Amino acid sequence: xxxxxxxxxxxxKQYFGAKRFDRESNKRIHMHSxxxxxxxxxxxxSMDYGHLMELSDxxxxxxxxxxxxxxxxxxxxxxxxxxxxxxxxxxxxxxDKVLNQPG
Length: 103
Description:
Strand order of the largest sheet: 1-2
Distance between the termini: 51 Å
Order of helices and strands: EEEEHHH
Number of helices: 3
């Protein structure tokens, strides 16, 4: 993540600011998202980590550290989704029990 901090405005409100990742010495670094490169529909995305690994191969990414980091991220996201889906399942079951109880 880019360096970030909270700024206090004249009104006393606080604002979050992050260093731009697409600038270096006031020069723009051209960026493009993986889903844009793969022409994925962001409204109904079909992208997964297999696609990202394929894209890395197309661009010739051979650095093992980069590949390992992608695998770690994929596993972390998978574990997080598994927990979230478990929570939503429990929540749905709880709601169903409440709605289906005799009044």
